[in-house]
């Protein structure tokens, strides 16, 4: 059958022939005219199509949401990577350019550390008559009250606290 061909149901033929008893009987038993069938078909097609559109819209929104989440993850990963690179560059910069001022501890050498150092490496000590002045010796001469860093900082601070906490009588 072609689409342009007219189709009729038995109810349609009864309606065309104006047979009222037959029409009444067919309607009581659920007969449909071609117009009713077309309406039902159109409704079902629309429902299916609407469902298709709804499913498609849902799928599209889901895909967009997934892309958005992936972009957020990528951006966060890139930000972390840049932060790590920046921190690494700062660490490298800190390692490559040492502090221009040498760290000198403000205390006299500890008597405990001095004998062990002399006994451990006696051949490395210069003879008593030939003293070599290193940067520590120059620095200690320039700033009185400071010593080369031979004792621990804790020992130095305890010595300084002991002298600072005494009150004159």
From TrEMBL:
Disordered as annotated region, ranges: 65-169
UniProt biased composition (Pro residues): 99-112
Database matches in InterPro entries: IQ_motif_EF-hand-BS
Ranges annotated as biased composition (Basic and acidic residues): 65-91
PROSITE patterns reported for this sequence: IQ
Pfam families: IQ
Start-end of Polar residues biased regions: 113-122, 158-169
The protein, known as: Uncharacterized protein
Organism in which the protein naturally occurs: Neotoma lepida (Desert woodrat)
Lineage, top ranks: Eukaryota, Metazoa, Chordata, Craniata, Vertebrata
